[in-house]
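Subject: Sanity check before I submit

Could someone independently write out the structure tokens for this chain? I want to compare against mine line by line before I put it in a report. The sequence has 291 residues.
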Amino acid sequence: MSRPLPPGTAVSLHAPQGGLPAGTAGVIVASPRDGSVYGVNFAGRVLNVNRVHLKVTGTDLPPLAPHDLRPYVQYACVMGSRAFGLSTDASDTDLRGFYLPPARRHWGLGEVPPQLEFAAPGAEAVYWEARKFVLLALKANPNVLEVLGSPLPVLVTPVAQALLDIRGAFLSRRIAQTYGEYVRAQFRRLDNEQRTHGEVRLKHAVHLLRLLISGAHALRTGEVLVDVGQHRAALLAVKTGELPWAEAERWREELQRDFGRAAAHTALPDHPDVEAVEAWLVAARRAALDW
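---
Independent answer below. Compare away.
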């Protein structure tokens, strides 16, 4: 049996706990005499966390609190319904983007969190660490590709502008898989919900329909479509249930056929331009040397 971790041990979360995301750094303040639950201080908030959810960071340096790294956010944009052209008076404001830690933090003994999260009434902000952000984009993650294409930027530093200038490097035929396969799998779940419970999550259905529209556009034009306001009336009719589910299903089938045609005739390359993205990341790290 391994020895208990002593108070003062620096740890991070393997998985989300108590509303904190995975990767959040903390310090053990109470070790169990029996059992495996530790008291961990996360930037002033103490949680009881099972040992299986903790990763020892190998240092007793104070953890990097999200607010300490917020000044290093390089890119922030409005996402969610406001960026999609589907907002109402009740819509929250969601901010997304990335941050670039200074070299002294990134190269030090402590670990920088994979993402920063901030929440306030009616607002939520998530900023990925730069490397994680571009890795997700290279995999054609729809959420991250849309962040790069948001029509509502809030903060764009020179480092971020350099990335936006090459955002086409992330686009490839992988979109056909990441958008198309995800949507198909999720609609199978919605169909099962309809058969089993007689109802579906309409808000999620709108999200999937929007992805089909956006994905087909990207495959045809090489640009990610974020604002789908031209389809606002139809999408909101699905969300409110005003459009019968049978008609929404027919629209979905039509959009999936269109997505398939776009995928079959796309001029996008088979793979993203990894070299261009890596060159940007190296230059960005160099820029952070003196921060």
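---
OP: Matches mine. For the report I'm noting this point. Residues 66-171+272-290 form a domain with the Beta Polymerase; domain 2 fold (CATH 3.30.460).
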